[in-house]
Amino acid sequence: MTYIDPHIHMLARTTTDYEAMAAAGIVAIIEPAFWIGQPRTSVGSYIDYLSTLVGWERFRAAQFGIRHYCSIGLNSKEANNERLAEEVMQILPRFLLKEGVVAVGEIGYDEQTPTEDKYFRAQLELAKELNMLVQIHTPHRDKKRGTSRSMDVCIEHKLAPDRVVVDHNNEETAQEVLDRGFWAGFTIYPGTKMGNERMVEIVRRYGSEHIFINSSADWGVSDPLAVPKTAQLMRERGIAEEHIRRVTYDNALKAFTAGGQMAESDWLSPPAIDQRTLFEGNSVLRGGQEPRIEGKRTKERMLIE
Amino acid sequence: MPTPAQLLQGWLRRQLPGDAAGWLEAQAAVVGGAETDRALFLAISLVHRRIGKADLALSAADIAAAEATRPGWRPAGWSLDQAARIFLLLAAGGSPTRFAERLEQMFATADVGELIAFYRGLPLYPEQPRYIQRAGEGLRTNMKAVFEAVAHNNPYPAEQFDEHRWNQMVVKALFIGSTLYPIEGLERRWNPDLTHMLCDYAHERWAAGRTVSYELWRGVGPHADKAAVDDLARVLDNGGPVERQAAALALRESPHRDAASILGRDPDLAAAVHGGRISWDALAAKHSAPT
C-alpha cells in the first residue's frame, strides 16, 4: 500500500521520521504553513519559513523518495499580531504560485477574534483571485461553532465547497462538513485530536466519501506514521480495503490535484530533470521496496490515543 | 552573433507548443522595461505550470552556438523551465544594478527549481563580478542539486572565484558526495593549497575508517609535495582497483622527483597510463554517476 499524509509539519521532524515514513509506504505529503511553536516577531522570519517550505524541506523529503507539497498562508494565531499580519499579507502572493504549493493554508480561526476573521477573509479572497484551493484549520476551543463559521464564511466568499478542505474534524463536526459538501480531514493526533480507534468507527459510520486522514505531526507529541498505522488498524478491524484506500490515498489525491499542483505522476514517473537533480533516493524509481509497518516496535505502538 | 537571450528564445519557440510559446513571448514583452517587478515575480513562478519541465532539446549546433556566444556556457542538461526562467530574467533587462538587485530579491523567495535555474544562469548575467557573493551563497547550501547548479557545467566559478572560494567549492563537492569532473576549469585551477586540503581530507576519512572518492587524487598530482606523493604511493599499494588507477594517473601528472619511481612499482598500471589507456575522462565515464 502507498499512502499520502496530506497534513504534516516536517520542518519539526527528523530524518529518522522520513525514513520510517518512506518505509511505511508514504509517497507524498502536504506541509501546511503554520505556527512554529514560538511566535514570529518579524516578516523576515516568515519569509524564511515559507522559503524553507518551498526549498530546503522539499529537497529533504526528496532524499527519501517522498514528494513534498505545501500550502502557504498566514495562520490564525499570528493573524492576531496585526503589524506582522499586514506585512505577511504583502508577501504571500510571492509564494502562492510556487511549484508544489497546493493550497492557501492552513488558515481559519483560533480564538475567533475579529482580527482572525479579517485575515481569514482576506486570504479567501486571495485564493479566489489565484484560483487556489483552501486548507482550513478548525479551532480547538469552541470547535463546533468555529467549524460551522469557517464554512459559512467560505460560502459567503463564494468558494466552492469541494475546493475547500476542512481539517481536524471529530465526531461532533463530521456530519455537517460532509452534508455541506466540503472535504473532511481527520487528524490522528494523540491527546488533543482524533485517536485511530475512534477513526475506525468514523469510517464505519460515515463511509469513505469525502473523508481522508492525516497526522498533523509537528513539534508536539505526535506520530508521523499515523496514516499507515491507522490504515493497518482499519485492516485488522475489518474495514474493506477500498475504504482504507480512499481515506489514506485516493481522496486526498482527488481533493488536492484539483488545484493543478499535485499529480500522481509526480511520484510514479517524475520528469527527467527531477530525477537528475532531486530524486536520487526514490524507492519508487528504484523498483520499490515493500512498505512495512508491522515491525515489533511499531506493533507495540499501533494505537494512537 | 545572437545573444544568449535570443538563443534561448529560439530554442524555446522551436520546442514549445503554440500556447506555451505565446504565453512566454507575451510575458517577455510585459516584463521588459516594466516599472515594477511584480509581473516578473509572478511570471517566473508560473513557468513550471505554463512551460513544464521537459528536457531542453539541443543539437550539437545549438551547443556550439552557445559556446560561440558565451564561451563556457553549457546548456546541455537544462530543462525547459530553467531555460524559460533565465530567458525571462534576461528579457526583464534594466541596468546591471537594477538587474542584480531584482535577482537578489528573487533568490530570497525562490523555490528549489528556481534556485537551480537562477544559479545555472550565472554566466549570462550582466557585470559578472556582481554575483560572486551570491554564487558563494549557493555553495553554502546543503541542497546538492543547488550546489551543483553553481559548481557543475558552469564557467562562472573558474572565472570569478578567488583561490580560497574555489578550493572550498572543490573540497565541498567531495564532502557532499558530488563529483569533480563536471567542474569547469578544474585542470587550470589546481593549486598547492588545494592539494594540501585534499590530502588532509583523505587522512581524516582514513582515520575514521572511511573511503575517499578516486577523484580526490586528480587534484593531488600536479602540486604533490613529498607527503602527497607518499599518499599516492599508499593508494597505489593498498587502494581498490579504481583508486589505484587514479593514483597512477596522479603520479604520472606529478612533477615530483619520486613520482616516476613509485609509479614504476606497478609496471602494468604505469604502461596503461603512459599509453593513454587510462584517463580521468574514461574513469569518470565509467565510475561516476552522470550529472
Structure, described:
- The complex is a heterodimer of chains A (about 300) and B (about 290).
- Chain A has 15 helices and eight strands.
- Chain A has about 300 residues and is an alpha/beta fold.
- Chain A has a single domain, classed as TIM Barrel (Alpha-Beta Barrel).
- Chain A has an eight-stranded parallel β-sheet with strand order 1-2-3-4-5-6-7-8, sandwiched between helices.
- Chain B has about 290 residues and is an all-alpha fold.
- In chain B, about 65% of the residues lie in helices and about 0% in strands.
- Chain B has 17 helices and no strands.
- In chain B, helix 1 packs across helix 5 and helix 3 packs antiparallel against helix 5.
- The longest helix of chain B has 16 residues.
- Chain B starts with a helix and ends with a helix.
- At the A-B interface, helix 2, helix 3, helix 6 and helix 14 of A face helix 3, helix 7 and helix 9 of B.
CATH top level class name of chain A: Alpha Beta
Radius of gyration of chain B: 22 Å
The parts of chain A where pLDDT drops under 50 for at least 5 residues are: 281-291
What is the count of helical runs of chain A? Answer: 15
Largest sheet of chain B: none
What class do helices, strands and sheet pairing of chain A give? Answer: alpha/beta
How do the SSEs of chain A run, as a string of H and E?
Answer: EHEHHEHHHEHEHEHEHEHHHHH
Strand content of chain A: 5-15%
Q: Could you say what the CATH topology of chain A is called?
A: TIM Barrel
CATH architectural grouping of chain A: Alpha-Beta Barrel
Compute the number of strand runs of chain B: 0
* General form of chain B: elongated
How are helices and strands ordered from N to C of chain B? HHHHHHHHHHHHHHHHH
Q: Count up the domains of chain B.
A: 2
Residue share in helix of chain A: 40-55%
**Overall pLDDT confidence of chain B:** 95
End-to-end CA span of chain B:
30 Å
